[in-house]
Design a protein that fits this description.
Strand 1 and strand 2 form a beta hairpin. By secondary structure, the protein is mainly alpha-helical. The chain has 2 domains: about 120 residues, no CATH class; about 140 residues, no CATH class. The protein contains 10 helices and 2 strands, in the order ααααααββαααα. It is globular and about 50 Å long. The longest helix has 29 residues. It has a two-stranded antiparallel ribbon with strand order 1-2.
Length: about 270
């Protein structure tokens, strides 16, 4: 998978522009839009959280524009998640219920909610952007937790009628199915964007050495396992357990498809 850059001789400045300026405008723009819609009563705080969740999880679109010729400056891709990590940490301890971020990204208006799932999500974003930057593992873990977990609770509350209980938490079949379908959609979109567009210099529709059927098996497996983990996950820990389950699933599928030798395939940087 390649990269798109307009400044091939200056990766430091280019990666700063993409990883900090563009990414911040993207994420902050979504948050400000959601804040305005919640304030005007056009959107519930619950739905705004889901939109932000999905949009933030999709931050990895900037990977296609990160210049990897200078390895260290590619870390600018986690600048915004790092900024929001400290923002949530501060507002979780010092913020008030009237704070716009608290209203937009918490369920009950309690600032300390930002210290749980919301904060964990920024940590996952940073892990994806460092250890798993540019890999199948990186974009799949963000697709499954960002898209699947982002929409499942909303679908369950809005359309769920077939209820079941796991670990004392009430879930719905509609919500779980929504998780699987939306996570699958997000994974396919990320693969097309990063795996296909990012590999325009190759004659195949994915990274060389990985067959289309194998990719579909991997994506479907990760989404299914993520759905099950979301159903049984304790409250506020799903943002950690779901991406962890994606990585474990990749290891298992690697072993099944390649007898354990494909660690270099699904976990290696494609950029």
């Amino acid at each position: 998978m390649g990269f798109i850059t307009l400044m091939p001789n200056d990766p430091l400045i280019w990666n700063f522009i993409i990883g900090v300026v563009v990414a911040l405008v993207y994420v902050q723009g979504i948050i400000l839009l959601m804040e305005k819609m919640v304030t005007n009563g056009k959107l519930s705080s619950d739905l705004s959280r889901k939109v932000i969740h999905i949009a933030a999880g999709s931050f990895i679109w900037i990977w296609l524009f990160i210049d990897t010729s200078d390895g260290i400056t590619s870390l600018f891709n986690i600048a915004v998640p790092l900024l929001f990590f400290f923002t949530f940490l501060y507002k979780g301890y010092r913020g008030s219920p009237d704070d716009k971020d608290v209203k937009t990204m918490s369920r009950t208006g309690d600032p300390r909610e930002l210290l749980k799932g919301t904060l964990y999500f920024t940590i996952i974003m940073m892990i994806a952007g460092t250890i798993f930057f540019g890999s199948y593992a990186g974009f799949l873990m963000m697709a499954v937790v960002g898209w699947g977990d982002g929409i499942a609770p909303y679908i369950g509350k809005r359309f769920g009628s077939r209820k079941y209980t796991t670990l004392g938490r009430e879930k719905t079949l509609e919500g779980s199915l929504g998780f699987f379908v939306i996570a699958l959609l997000g994974s396919l979109l990320f693969w097309i964007f990063l795996g296909v567009l990012g590999a325009l210099d190759t004659p195949v529709l994915a990274d060389p050495g990985v067959e289309l059927l194998e990719i579909l098996i991997v994506i479907i497996s990760c989404c299914f396992v993520g759905m099950v983990v979301e159903a049984f996950s304790p409250a506020d820990l799903d943002n950690i357990l779901i991406p962890a389950s994606t990585l474990i699933t990749l290891l298992v599928v690697d072993f099944v498809l390649y007898s354990g030798a494909s660690f270099i395939v699904f976990f290696r940087p494609l950029l």
